[in-house]
Each structure stands twice: as structure tokens, then as C-alpha cells.
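User: Blast:Membrane metallo-endopeptidase-like 1, Drosophila guanche:
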Amino acid sequence: MLKLTLIVWLLFSLAWRTTPSSCRQTRSPQTIRQLLATQLQSYMDTTVRPCENFYQYACGNWQLQQEQPAQHREREKEREREQEQLLPSDTLGVLDLNLNRQLEMALRRSNESTTEEEPPIYDKLRLYYRSCKRLKPYNLKKYLQLLSPGNGTHWPLLSRSWRREKFHWLTTIGRLRLHGLNGVLLKEQVLPRWDDSSVYSIYLDKPSLVETLPMGEGAMIELLLDIGQTKRVANALAREVDDFERRLHRLQELEDDEGAKEMQLGYLAEYLPELKWLPFMREIRVDTEPDVRSTLIIQNIPYMRALHELVERQQPYTICNYIMLKFLAYLKQQGPAEISRGECVASMRRAMPLASSWMIGQRLYDPEAEQDVGSLFKQLKQRFAHILEDNRLQLAPPIVHVLQEKLRAMRLQLGFVQMNDSGYVEDYYQQVELNGHNFYANQLKLLRLRVERNHELLLSSTATDLGNVSYLTESWLASSSSPLYVKPRNLVLMPYGLLQLPVWHRNTSSLQTHAVLGFALAHELIHGYDASGIDYDGLGNIMGPSEEIAGNQRFIQGLRCMQQQLATGSRSLNEKLADYEALRLVYETFFGLKPKPREPRDPLLAQFSQRQLFFISFGQFFCGKMPALSLQAHSHLEHAVDELRVMQTLANFEDFSREFGCEKRTKMQAKQRCRVW
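Assistant: Predicted structure for Blast:Membrane metallo-endopeptidase-like 1:
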């Protein structure tokens, strides 16, 4: 269950925001600190030695604290059974659950129940939410009935009159691309140009390695049963599609020996005539005839040719069903995991990310928070500027200057959309008409809207401030409370959802703020200087000094050191680099470089030194229980499992070992400590 103390935090935070200023002056700010001190100790398992398993030491009792008191159990018993599989498994999950409950309370209110005039966009958010709540049950087959493969044919499993000669797989991919599906057989995206990030281009590419991972026969059978197929049909079809999917996945091994090419659409149709590009683009841009003189950028051309050959060897029936299954899996991920209030809000945030972000900002934005976060980000930049100046990698002065210029240009943005962007948000959703009784149509309309709005960016000559990150609306990141670094914008984006305890509160200690929020900001800042971040300059163009840095021996040694630790940690080298460097950065930002002879202890936690508390607070942000994840859920994870992430990051930091007195042979002492910057 949701941890009780976080509910207390939420209520206290809301009360604090709505209490008159004269009353606030009488409320002791220590209340929050006392609560945090109690929570910190309740999470810990002090029977574990911190030098053997610091994660268990800091988080060993986290799961126990998720249980509510006995007097609440009877009242919540039914709800526990319904939501047992949907409980948050980590701190970000708890934050999102708190946030969803706040939004759900706001959406349940009728317009007559409040004297405040609500923005018009609230009506559309409420219509989507209500249409979701009225689902009984969630039926994926409805989507297939609303959206056919195109070209006058139907899905073969739903029609006995399916005609294979009318099925064109690339046309179907284009039709479903218009409704959000991407990374199936190929990928089409509207992204900032590599040489001028202020304008956009269409990028055609092969799917990512994760996107072509086989779904598995079990997942396919489950989807087929959901749309009313018999077990016999489901088993036979799953075997056929699984065989094709494994052949498709092997195409990932092809090297892109031709490299990326920019060409006009008309020339592409001649360069790769085996693929019907014009019908594909007509399905995506239904309101206008594709301009054959328009340019796009295509990568992995050898894959495209091999894809055509592979598809031609398969039965159209198999290809059509494969596309259908991928579409159903995508829609299942976008919709609610179950028909409940919280899950309908979560689905709303995925379907309407811009409107939801603005609504969240209306509830959580605090000018004091923006000032605090901005000040902390400025401190981190100042410390990293000194690190670049120290030039551990011994780079040439012009290269150091380019890196420093990029750091000076790096910006922080609070919220996916700004509080003064209400007009932009209203305009974005103006043309879409939602129905409080038709969830399936609502979902398809909103998925289509995101794709259409992104392709409209191709018509703008420059990227305005409002459109800075709007091209990310198709990404799951747009509906997440996780911060991110946007490389083409040289921008650290912190969602409004993080303006909650334990990440931020006006009364938390500076140590707590640095250990949690500071680390999150530092992690994203470092992504601007990881193995792919160095490709980008301060303007977000792929013109950074990557060749000079990537060839530096110290840089190579640092990456190799981290690479050796990937077997049991993160799947992404860049994530590990960001963790390792960010912890050092935020620690040195807060404590400085020289140890102080006598640092005052927190009277509420006098048994720990300030530095020990810093490491405990850092570790506890990652407290959680890793659930059994589906293949689709795993596709979004690049970080290590939380326990390994905390242990490896701390074991790599010599100040942690010194502060807790860890000997060389203990688990919390890395055999080799890795560092890049």
C-alpha cells in the first residue's frame, strides 16, 4: 500500500500552500524535518553492515513501511485485492501515485462545485477521464473495428472476406503510424535537424534493438485471446508470427555501411523503389499531398533492403497479423492497466501529456520551488565549470573552451509546458472533439493528434520557445515525472511532478535537497557530457568535439572501466557514467573539496555525521521493490536495478568508503574506481 508518511507529506504540503501567510509564520518548519528524520530511520535496517550492503542498510525496511495501520485494512481490503499488481515499486512510483490521486480529485469535481473558473482544457481532460471510467471492460478489439489496415481491406482475424492482394504492409504501417505506432518494421520521426536544431526534418530509420525483441508466444496468445480468438487459433498464429519476429530481429546485425543520407522524397522513391514510400507518406500526411521535393534523412539503408526481402518471403497473412499484434500491444500500453480511477488518470497523462503537464503545474508549481531549483542548478554548473577547468583529461584548450561554452548555454526548464503557455495548450487540443462515452475513439483521436502536431513542426521555419520540447509528446517521457536531458535543446527538463516530498519542499534541509534533487539535476547535466552527449554543441547541433574527446586515452580508460561493471548493472554505459559523475559533482558542490574539522550534526539524527546522512538520503531515494516486468516495461529501462545502482555508485566513490570506514575487501569498495571527468 501507499506509504502512510507520504500521505501525511501530501496533506501537509497542501495545507501549507493554502494556509494564510500570517498563520504560516507560526508553523514551525521543523515539522517536515522531523517527519523526514522519522522516515529515514524507519526505512533503515541497521542490523546490516553498511560496508557489506548499503542498499539493505538504507532501505531494508522500506517495504514494511508500505503497509497501512490495522484500522485501515478492513476498509481498504477490497481495493488492495484489485490493485495488488499496480502498487508503486519505487519512490518515483509513489510520487506518481500521489500525483494521480490529486488529479483524480480535481477531475471528479463538477464545474458547479467550485467558484473558480476552470480553463477550457479541463473539460477535455475530464471527458477523457470519464470515458475511461465508463469502460466495462477494456476491449482491445474495439480499436481494430475502428481502424482497418487500409486500402479497402480488413484485419484477417476479423473478416472472412480478407483479400491478400489488397494488403500493402508499408501502407498499413503508415496508417498506424498516423495513430502513434512507431518502431514496427521501420521508424519514422520528426526531430530537430542534426546541423540546425532550430528546424525539423523527417528521419527514417530501422527500429531500435529493443523494439525488435520478440514479444514471445505467451504475450501474443494473451493478446489474441483478448480479442476473442480461440486457444487453437491463438497458438497456431503465435508460432507463425514468432518465427517471423525472430528473423526480423536478426536483421539488427546488419551494419549501416552507407551511412545517413539526406534526399528528396521523390528521389527516395527511385533510390529504394522496392519500398512504396509515397503511399506510406500519404497515410501519415492525409490532409496534404506529399511534396516530392521535400527532404528527409534516412539511415540504415541496408536494413531497409533486407527488410523488403524478408517480408516478400512471408505470407501477407502473417505480416498483417504481426502488425496487428504490435498495434494491440502498443494500445494496451497506452490505455489503463485496469479500469480504476488512478489508472484512468495515468492513461490520461499518457494520452494528453501537454494538457496534463500544465494541469500538474497548476497544482504543484511554486515560485519558491523554481527559485530553489534554479539556484541549485546554478551551483552544480559552477562546480562542473571548475572540473572542466581542471582538465583532468588534458584536452586541448580549444576543446575545453567548447565544453565550457556548452555548459554556460545549458538551461533548466521546470515543467514540460510553462505556466504562461495556457493559450498554446488550448490551441494544441482545439481541433479534437472528445466524447465522454467513447474511450476508444478518444484514444485514437489523441494519438493521431500528437503525430499530426509533430509533423506540423516541419512547416515552421524556427523552433519557438513553446515548441522547444513539444516534439517529445510521442515519447513516454512526456508523461513521466522523471527528469531528462534534451540533447538537441541543451536543456535539463524537470517535471512538475518532482515538486513533492521527498524530492522538494520549502522546509527540507539543504543536505536533503542536494542529496536527492541535486543528484537528479546533476545526473541530467552530466548526460550533456556522456559518450553521446559530447556529439552535441551548446546549440544542440551534432557538431560537438566528439572525435577529439572520444580519442582521448583517459576518456577511453574511464569508459572501459565502467563497461566492465555493466554485466551486473545498467544496460546503458551513459547511465552509469551519469550516476558516477553526478554523485561526485553534487557531493563536492555541497561539501566542497576540503573536509571541515568539525561539521555540525543534525540534532534529530545525531548518530550520523552530515556526510553519512548525505549518502543515506541519496540511497533512500532509490528504495523500492523491483516487480516482475513485462518485455514492454523493460524496454523503457536503461538504469540498473535500484539496489545495484546505489551500491555500485557508492562503491565507486572513495569519500563514501572513508566516511563509513569500509575496508578494501568489503563489497562497498570497488576493486577499481572509475572516473571520466
